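Q: Could you fold this chain for me?
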Amino acid sequence: MATPKRKDLATHLRQCLNATIDAAIEQLEAYAGSRRGPFRLNLRNDAEMARMRLRVKIHKTLSAAETAELWMQ
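A: Sure. Below is the predicted structure, expressed as structure tokens.
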């Protein structure tokens, strides 16, 4: 019975982290929107790459934690 609760917690954590990432990226994109020239484009591209990388890291970290818990049982 403990596994579904942990799974729910992992899902909740993933959702919270994704929301935090989105908020931070939106702020960076808003800042980039206030800039002019190539710097603006670079910030937007960097923000999108950062978003993708962080999501992959979150997924890998949570998956590894879930796998470790299964091995510990």
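A (continued): The first helix runs from residue 2 to 34.
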